[in-house]
Structures are given as structure tokens and as C-alpha cells.
Amino acid sequence: MVSSGLSSLTASKAGDASEQRWPWWPLLPLYPYGRRRTLVRELIPGQVWAFEQLQGIFYVAVPIRMTVLRLRQGLLLYAPLPVTAELLAALRELERHHGPVVTIVLPTASGLEHKLPTPALARAFPNAAVWVAPGQWSFPLSLPPSWLGFPPSRTRVLFEQGLPHGDELDWCGLGPLDLGLGTFMEVACLHRATGSLLLTDALVAIGADPPAVFDADPTPLLFHARDRGDQPLEDTPEQRRRGWQRLVLFASYLRPAPLEVPGWGEVLALAMAPGLRHPRFYFGLYPFRWQPHWQEAFRELVPGDQPRLQVAPVLERLVFPRCRGALVEWIGRLAQLPDLRWLISAHYEAPVACDAARLADLARELVTRPWAPEQDSWATLARIDHTLLKLGLVPRSPQS
What's the burial of 202, exposed, middle or buried (CB within 10 Å: 0-12/13-18/19+)? Predict the structure, then answer.
């Protein structure tokens, strides 16, 4: 549900490219590059809102989310998004009804897509305190946070320098885990008033249907719904669903088992088809060939129509392959948080109904099933992991 005050605001800006401009996109050149549309959804009336954009590589795009909480002192922003005039206008509207932005939280040490927008968001709200996860790092040079744009006078480190709004929020950290080049750290936050558990990357819930954030421009869905590069982009509900499920397989496994890459002769022969000779359609270049059983691979990942709570495969194989114990222990601590009712991750579906029993079931599943597999759709991720190990870029014992 979208609040009435924000509904008209976001609709009026839907086609205004200047209001959706993100000038810092070259620092992290991900789709949709310099234009970031923002969808605002009211998740729990008067208390929790989701600000959602798309993010990906070319047209392999998935939702990325900033969650806004209404607290007694004002608004808290969790997991910042690229700052556009459209996003700021929506936040100013929330401030008008619910008080000022008082806290900005960067809940991850390694998520550049959340870290990069944080200084810009801090500048937009100069009276807000900025709290960051422990273990912040930068690459290729290790620079102090102030050099990266974090305001030194009002930036604090979670746990090390306290915890904000302890009378309304519970905080639970996963990590630190040694990634080789840097540290993985994620800090979850429970909003007691609504039972909403805010997460960043470690756990997600993936649904079978495309999220509403694609409605403004379904091109990524329609592009990947095709079987050949010379096919037009047909916009139907079934094509959107088909494209979404293939995007999920791409984002989860990089190269899922049912995907073949045809030769460039075939790709070029099908390119430049009438109606597709435009950069928006990559001039008809479509270097993919899906096998008939590709939907079975999706059903293995998402067995039913309801969103399934899980560890994203790309994180399981490339971030957590040798630290299942730490992850399971963290999930156990999350399950002990009081009055848990909803899970809101920074990616994919939200909110998702969640309680201690569901988290306990997930922990048991992670312990009993094969962990970080190497075969089928996992094979490409496994090869990357083995290569990183061989080069000494990731540690064999990541817990520090």
C-alpha cells in the first residue's frame, strides 16, 4: 500500500528524467546508470516505508531497497539508496507528516551499492546522525571514512560507539568475516513497534512474479523473456513473469545450468532486426539460449508462488562458503528477537511474514542440506570461488 500523500508525488515524477538523475553513477556503473526511478511503498501504515530502485548489470536487474522507520524522535533511514531529487522530495513529504530525518544507518561493511550513496544522503540531511557497520573498508586504497565523504563530526560505528534508539530498536550483527580484500559485516535491526526485521544482503525472499518497481519500465523483463535476439519485446503479464524468473536465475547463479551461450555468428545473424536497432535493445544482441527445462531450475530456487526465505546462492557460494556456522548462529540470534512479525530485506520481496519458527526452520535447512554446492547451476559460482582460493584472494578460514 502507498500512502495517499506520496502516491500523487511519485506518480507526477514518473516521467521526469531530471528528477531521477544520479550523478555519481560512474563510481559504480550499474544499470540503470544515471537515471534512478524511485518507487515509494507504505509497508506498515504510518510506520514503515520502502524506497525502491532497480540495480544490475545491463538488464540483469533486481530491486534494491532503503527502509524508512518512524520513531519517536523522527525518521530513520536504513540502507541508503542513490540520492535523486525525486527520492529527496518523497523524504521531505514524509518529514512533513512524521518529523525530521534523525538517523541514517549504513548496515553493511562491504555493500558498495549501499555505501556509495551514504555521504550524499548525509549531506542532504545535515542534522542527522550517521551510524555505520563496523569494519568499513575501501579498495584499492584503504582510506579513512572522512576521505570517502562521511561527516566525521556525526558518524558513529555501531556497537563500538553505542547503538541508536535502543528504547525502540534491537540490533544484531553478523561478522566480522574476512573476505580477503576486506571484511563482511551486516547489522540487522528489529523495529519493536511493528515487529519488522530489517536486513541487508544475507537473507532474501524471492517471489515468482516481478516486483512493482519494474512497472515504470519493464524493458529488462521483456528483453530476457525472449528466446532469440530477433524477437520483438512483447509486453504481456506472462512475458513479464517469464523475464523476471530468468533474471532471478542470472542474478542468483551468474550462469545457471539451463543457459547456453550461442556462437557469435548466430548472435550477429539475429541482431539488428527491424524495430530493435536501438541502444535500448542492445541493437538486437542477445547472446543467450535457454534450454526447455529452465523453469525447473527456477522452481528449485523458488518452489511455490509465495516468496521463499533463503540465502541468495551467489552469497552462499562466494561470501559464506566456509562460514555456514556463523550464519546459522546469527539466524538463531535473530529468531530470539521478541515479537518478530515481518522481514524486510534490501533486495527482492518485502515485507515477508516471518517469525521465530520460520527462522529456526531456515537454520535447520542450512545445516542439513548440502552447503555451497558445486554442481548444476552452482558450477560457475564454484569455479569462481576455487579460482579466488587458488590465487589467495579469499581466505580458507574467513571468521576473524
Answer: buried
- Going by C-alpha positions, the residue among 51, 53, 52 that lies closest to residue 35 is 53
Q: pLDDT digits over 30-48, tens only? A: 999 999 999 999 999 999 9
| Grid-cell match 523524504, residue found | 91
pLDDT tens, residue by residue, 184-236: 999 999 999 999 999 999 999 999 999 999 999 999 999 999 998 888 889 99
- Is 4-207+311-363 in CATH node 3.40.50.300? no
What's the Cα-to-Cα distance from 351 to each of 53, 170, 197, rounded to whole Å?
16, 18, 9
Low-confidence stretches of the chain (pLDDT < 50) are 1-13, 400
| H or E segment and range at residue 238 | helix 237-253
Find, among 212, 235, 237, the residue nearest to 222 by Cα: 235
Beta partners for residue 101, in sequence order: 75
- Letter for the amino acid at 112? L
Residue 394 near residue 182 (C-beta atoms within 8 A): no
Under 8 Å between Cβ of 133 and 158: yes
For the chain, domain boundaries: 4-207+311-363, 218-301
Nearest to 38 by CA among 57, 59, 10: 10
